[in-house]
User: What shape does this take?
Amino acid sequence: MITLQPLQDMILFEEALEIVNGAARQLSVTPVPLAQAHGSVLAQDIFSDMDMPPFDKSAMDGYACRRADLDKPLEVIEVIPAGVVPVKMIAAGTCSKLMTGGMLPQGADMVIMVEDTEPAGENRIRFTGTKSSDNFCHTGEDIRKNDRVLEAGTLLRPQHIAILASVGCVEPLVYDQPVVGVLSTGDELVEPHQKPAPSQIRNSNAAQLMAQIDTIGAKPQYFGIVADTLEATRKAIEGAINKCNILLLSGGVSMGDFDYVPQVLHETGFEVLFKSIAVQPGRPTVFARKGNTYLFGLPGNPVSSFVQFEMLVKPLIFALMGSKYDPVQLQLPMGTNYTRRNPKRKSFIPVVIKQGKVFPVDYNGSAHIHAYVKAQGIVPVEIGKTTIAEGELTDVRLI
Assistant: This one.
């Protein structure tokens, strides 16, 4: 946990990320039905209540027998479907027909595949192969009773739901999913269903942010478009902050004559922790806190809001849910030379991956969201660096 520092004019991205993570306070925990647990974060360790598999289990359709008897015809004494407990014990010269997933009968030490057998008379078979594996799963070879199968802090994906079901955890304890509100500012904005008049644009940022929120398991809530007046901005923020854990403002945070957000935040009791980051896109990004409510003022350009959601908002959402955001990152060579003119800020560039190499996407600036339609990742370019040479290794953050 860090000690929050006084507001500075412009800070490094790494400092901004540290402030965001340091400000996070985990939400409450609640037991939820298994069917509703996907996308939540576990608030407890999960232990197995049984061995897995719980019995010696056939890995294929075949015949359970003794390895010592493979050189002689075998009498089939029983047929054992999956889910049925064997009745008869395997003795010398005998075998049982066993289905995939079926329980290995007592006395058997292997299963021979059906494909490696042939009839040898009535109710008799002969092994025709030259060698064979045991072909069964041993009791507890995957998990032993009381083994920890999932750790607190795990973001529950479909494979984790399967584990919970397999150990009978039908009501796991999870962190509450944060409600993340979206509020757009700007007289130039109209909703997507409306035809823009001259000087207007459709509000694509809100739709984009709502989708980004939904994708990671938080609960999006849209608060609409607020007019560019001091009173309207104050009223909208005051009305939204009591209904969500995080409020995302799109636009209104730069230095324009009608950008009232910084003033309203001070007037409504928010502590502004930073208001400018040495990055592109997304320099005029604001982060503030009031009690256990958090606010990001994101730039109005769609690429800026997209990238800063990925870089800063996601880590906060995960931290509130008791988890650490750990995006997939690859180290791959640049497939062509890349240059930029202004190295004063850390830059995030959209890239595609082709044949194990990274190629920048044609990108015209922070309003060019179309560049991200094909982008598969983001590559950081550090302050002071103007070029990435072809073949140079880069850190690719997948999106």
About this structure: The longest strand covers residues 346-354. The chain has four domains: 13-27+177-320, 31-51+142-174, 57-137, 329-398. Residues 329-398 form a domain with the Beta-clip fold (CATH 2.40.340.10). The two ends are 28 Å apart (CA to CA).
